[in-house]
Design goal:
Elements lengths: L11 E2 L4 E2 L21 H41 L11 E6 L5 E4 L9 E8 L5 E3 L1
Antiparallel strand pairs: 1-2, 3-4, 3-5, 5-6
Length: 133
């Protein structure tokens, strides 16, 4: 059984045996409105810029937190390597000094009450970590 060939301007689907010009995603005649794809490049560029700023801000926040944690670690290492012959009390302020031989020691004597070489004053937190004052 031979099917009759339709003219080129007629949109006929041979598989479904129907005229389907109205459901095509593109213009099927010269008089049809022009279909232009939406320009999504501007939206993509704005989104990329936003995500880049968000990632950079988060990176800088994490970097600052990391640097703060390393500094706390260094302070705690410095104090735990120092000489002291007492048990520090939580919530008290102590002072770290350096002797002339390079050895460091922890004391309750404030820098203005002595002539030792001060390295800093530290506060012992409830979680047993030292915080520089």
């Amino acid at each position: 059984m031979s099917e009759e060939k339709k003219p080129d301007q007629v949109v006929y689907n041979t598989e479904t045996k129907r005229y389907d010009a109205s459901i095509k995603p593109y213009a099927t005649s010269v008089g049809a409105p022009v279909i232009t794809p939406t320009d999504s490049i501007a939206w993509k560029n704005r989104s990329i810029t936003k995500i880049n700023h968000k990632v950079e801000a988060k990176y800088l926040e994490l970097k600052a937190e990391y640097e703060k944690m390393i500094q706390e670690f260094e302070y705690n290492k410095l104090i735990f390597d120092a000489k002291f012959s007492f048990e520090p009390v939580i919530g008290e302020v102590y002072h770290l000094y350096k002797r002339t031989n390079g050895e460091s020691f922890l004391s309750i004597i404030a820098p203005e009450q002595c002539d030792f070489n001060p390295l800093g004053s530290f506060y012992l937190n409830a979680d047993q970590t030292w915080e520089k004052i």
